[in-house]
Amino acid sequence: MKTRSLDSFPWVLVILGLAITFPPMSRGQTGPPRKAADLYGYYCKGCHGATGKGDTKLGQKLGVPDFTSVKIQEKMADDQMFKAIKDGIKKESVERMKPYGDKLNEEQIKGLVAYIRTLKTP
Ligand code: HEC
Q: Domain spanning 31-117: which CATH class is it, in words?
């Protein structure tokens, strides 16, 4: 009996218990998301629109660029986009888009640049 005690111990319940007590970040997460598409939906969609067209109320009011446009995409360099997201965009000292450098790390910003590239619809 003594040697079998390990086998009969209800490990399944222990693991289940741990899983419930310490859920992985991805499941228990309530803060901002991590994937580029989700980040975009969380931070950017309000102005730039779900498809990147910028056809939201706020987007139209502010005159955001149309990310689905091939022409617009060609005009934006990667590093320029990176900088715009990190440091924001100011024109004549008026803030056009606020900086996200305090909310997003470099990897996330690069992910967003890559994501915006996928919004182009030829
Ligand atoms: C409050 C509205 C608003 C939100 C939210 C917003 N943007 Fe913008 N964004 C703008 C406006 C307005 C412009 C155009 C600024 C200009 O060129 O005058 C712009 C321009 C851009 C550009 C083009 C920069 C260039 O080089 O021309 C990129 C890239 C961009 N936004 C990415 C993002 C990303 C990524 C997010 C989310 C993390 C985001 N924006 C959130 C308003 C917004």
A: mainly alpha
80 CA to middle of ligand 1, Å? Answer: 11
User: Which atom of ligand 1 is the closest one to the Cα of 76?
Assistant: 26
The gap between the terminal CA atoms of the chain, to the nearest Å, is 71
Ligand 1 lined by 43 (C-beta under 6 Å): yes
pTM value > 0.85: no
pLDDT given for residue 12 in this prediction: 80
* Residue 32 alpha carbon to ligand 1 centre in Å: 18
**Which neighbouring-strand residues pair with 95?**
90
Domain boundaries, the chain: 31-117
